[in-house]
Amino acid sequence: MTGDRQTRRAAQRRRTRRQRQAFFALIGVMLLAVALAVVFRDGGDGSRPATAQTPAVPGDGQRADAAATPAPPARSAQPIDVTYVGDTVMGSLPYGLPADRGASFFSQVDDLLVGDVVLGNLEGTLTTRGSSKCGAGSSNCFAFRTPPSYAKRLKDAGFTVMNLANNHANDFGPVGLSDTVAALRRVGIRNTGRPGTQATVRAGGQKVAILGFASYTWSDSLTDIARAQRRVRQAARTAPIVIVTFHGGAEGRERTRVPRGTETFLGENRGDLRRFTHAVIDAGADLVVGSGPHVMRGMEVYKQRLIAYSMGNFAGYAVFSLGGVLSTSGVLQVTLNPDGSFKRGRLRPTLLVGEGTPAPGGNGITQVRSLSRQDFGARAPRIDANGTIRPRR
Question: Within 13 Å and on the Cβ side, how many CA atoms surround 225?
């Protein structure tokens, strides 16, 4: 009996060892599976994947992207450089044209017009045809047209995209607007701002979409904010970077501030610019730049995106009222991160000299820095004395 008990005990010990070995083997397999899952999840390089974040609430200082579902930046994407200027008219018949058929019109500032995207507001038409919007003998009405050959002056200066969403793009009706588009295309300059259109370029290894808005029937609407958001969302689905330019706000030397609410001028609704700019950023815009008041206005950083509310008159030969703030302008140079967020910028001050020729100089930096602080407080970017622009941390 004693021998039988010893035999049974030995067998029990062997079974226990086998059970323990099987248990530890199972644990090992499970640990190996977990390790392999981590490796494959991280892409095999040991780096952590991007974690999903809860969409931010609009207005909390973070970008609310859930509704926009923008296209993600390409893996090899690089920062892009965007240059923007405000209202630009290279002279007009019958008011006058610059000397040498405009060949030297931008010569004092063309070294500033560099970047992946160089964008300006073309305040007028490039045509010799069409009927003027101003009837015979009408007063306080201005219709601008420059010969189509002057499109080459824009190209030679460095412009790559021109905005046609403004109150003068239709000065000579559909024929004048069509001639303007054709003249720009002939020299390789893209255009934006007509209803349902956008300019698309490649920069930094990815697509960049540029949309223009104003409060006129020949432009995408600045006042229909829901529709503007739909346009931006549509663009953001195909282009990781979206730039919005607008022409809005009341005009005049006393209109340097950005008010709350809707602005009107000569009976026209010129937009609720604070609401519009915030709404298009909520929808997916990465940079918003404006013109329209003919004076410079302040800048704001909203959800890590820069807004320049007006860059004033950049060039206006024999067509604009000049002097003081009406002659003060600048070239805005902005660098965007691959995800579209504002990285840094530079305001290069310019002014209109003589009959309205652009030249370096003026006090645009001081003016914009002061207006930004007054209108936007903590949301104003940091603007150094040399014009360097940085987001506040």
Answer: 15
Under 8 Å between Cβ of 85 and 117: no
Q: Which two tokens stand for residue 46?
A: 């040991």
Q: Is 202 exposed, middle or buried (0-12, 13-18, 19+ CB in 10 A)?
A: exposed
d(CA 127, CA 125): 6
Q: Is the peptide bond before 148 cis (omega within 30 degrees of 0)?
A: no
242-257 in b/e burial notation, b at 16+ Cβ within 10 A? bbbbbbbbbbeeebbe
Tokens (6 digits) for 322: 């000049």
Question: What is the reported pTM?
Answer: 0.82
Q: What SS3 class is residue 121?
A: strand
Q: What count of Cα atoms within 13 Å lies in the side-chain half-sphere of residue 323?
A: 2
DSSP 223: S
Q: What is the mean pLDDT of residues 236-258?
A: 97
The rounded distance, in Å, linking the Cα atoms of 353 and 368 is 20
Q: For the segment 266-289, what is each residue's pLDDT rounded down to a tens digit?
A: 999 999 999 999 999 999 999 999
Structural contact between residues 113 and 134, judged by C-beta atoms closer than 8 angstroms: no
Per-residue pLDDT for 29 more than 80? no
- Residue 122: both structure tokens together: 């073309």
User: Residue 53's pLDDT is what?
Assistant: 33
Bridge partners of residue 336, in order along the sequence: 80, 342
104 has a pLDDT exceeding 90: yes
Mean pLDDT of 155-181: 98
Contact 232, 184 (CB under 8 A): no
Partners of 269 in the β-ladder: 264
CA distances from 253 to 213, 313, 328, 338, 349 (A): 23, 11, 10, 37, 18
Within 13 Å, how many C-alpha atoms sit on residue 62's CB side? 8
H/E run at residue 213: strand 206-214
Task: Report which of 289, 358, 351, 361 is spatially closest to residue 324, judged by C-alpha positions.
Answer: 351
Higher-scoring residue by pLDDT: 61, 144:
144
- Judge whether residue 35 has pLDDT over 70: no
Q: Show the CA angle centred on residue 351, arms to residues 348 and 352, nearest 5°.
A: 145
Give, in order, the Cα–Cα distances in Å from 13 to each of 6, 7, 16, 320.
11, 10, 5, 102
